[in-house]
């Protein structure tokens, strides 16, 4: 994506730095939803930024000399500066020769304005036909999955004939690598209604609740429900929520 004047790499950097205007950010997220290559490039640049930030973070225990220190204290300081310079040189060489092709699979936590819009998540997942990263085969697996990730159990009752639970996706791992929605730990339950309409349920901890970012122009509806220590948001093309009301706290977890 480029407006014909600004190079794409510069747009990516401004997006990751939170420097795009709201209109520019929306246009950029539209391009992310439609272009898997661009999405991968943004993800790579975010990992690069985080790796460099970790590599060159200044040490906290370096004590600079006071004004009263004599010449005898200058040599340790010169050694410190020399060591920092050496790290920069070696780090630069390692960047081109070693680090770049083997970056760790981590994404820098976005700034608040970089939280991905709920509709953008929907579009990104639609590009992969809403493929789940993991399916729970039993109720026990479903309960355990939620509790392991969010610290509180939950279960969805599939007692609605039109409802089919497809599976889970996550915000920070797997095939989608989606940035923050509520937090970086948000779970995404993929469901189908009448085999046609796809509904996403964003699940996170209530004490970390923040409404998912929305697109200014959207034909989707977002519904909210609190369930014990959890917060649920249902993103649906329908006018009513049909999935979040079927989440329950397992009887074994009720005091």
Features:
35% helix; two-stranded antiparallel ribbon; 255 residues; globular; alpha+beta; 6 helices; 5-stranded antiparallel β-sheet; 7 strands
- Count of helices? 6
| Head-to-tail CA distance between termini | 53 Å
Q: Going across the major beta sheet, what is the strand order?
A: 2-3-4-6-5
Unreliable residue runs: 69-75, 95-113
Task: Give the % helix.
Answer: 25-40%
The overall strand count is 7
What structural class do the secondary elements suggest? alpha+beta
Q: Could you spell the SSE succession in H and E letters? A: HHHHHHEEEEEEE
Domain count: the total is 2
Mean pLDDT, to the nearest integer, reads 78
What kind of sheet is the major sheet?
Answer: 5 strands, antiparallel
